[in-house]
Amino acid sequence: MARIFPVLAALATATAVAACAPTVGRNGFQPIDVMPTDIVAGTDDKSTVLAKLGSPSTTSVFEGENVWYYITQTTEQYTFNRAQVAQRSVTAITFNEADDKVLEVRELDLEAGEQIAMNDRQTPTRGRQLTILEQLLGNVGRGQLPRTEENVPGQRRPD
């Protein structure tokens, strides 16, 4: 009994320490050989950026195809909590509209992001709201039971 207690205590400690370790998730663009900051303004164009980095995570909505974004995000989740963004990197590469040369390479991080307040209003629907019991019991008694005289196999149907 004296030997089992230290083993159980060590096992409980190891389990408690392992439960505190976060689950790390990496999403988005993952650079392999070339970093997005290695792109040189004035010398690279769309084809060389596409060859070095691959297709962008997204393109600009308002500037057309002239701004490419490469987005990388790392999240950490502890046990049953929501995942928290630990690191975010957004590289915006702006191209010249005339000759598709790189004009600017900007690096944005997590602090450059802005929180946007979402509108929580809802569009009203017609009709009334049903309670849970009304939803569960709403169809009880609505259907017709089959008439046994007419649905017996082998019987002639009355016209």
Written as H for each helix and E for each strand, in order along the chain, the element string is HEHEEEEH
How much strand content do the residues show?
Answer: 15-25%
Fraction in helix: 10-25%
Which radius of gyration do the C-alpha atoms yield? Answer: 31 Å
Q: Based on the structure, what is the oligomeric state of the protein chains?
A: single chain
Q: What is the number of helices? A: 3
Ordered list of secondary-structure elements with their pairings:
Elements: H1 4-19, E1 23-28, H2 46-53, E2 58-59, E3 67-77, E4 84-95, E5 102-109, H3 132-137
Antiparallel strand pairs: 1-3, 2-3, 3-4, 4-5
Describe this structure in words.
The protein has about 160 residues and is α+β, with helices and mostly antiparallel strands. Helix content is about 20%, strand content about 25%. It has three helices and five strands; from the N terminus they run H-E-H-E-E-E-E-H. The chain is flat and about 80 Å long. The termini are far apart.
Offer a quick outline of the entry.
The chain is an alpha+beta fold. The protein is built from three helices and five strands, in the order αβαββββα.
Key traits:
19% helix, 5 strands, five-stranded antiparallel β-sheet, 159 residues, alpha+beta
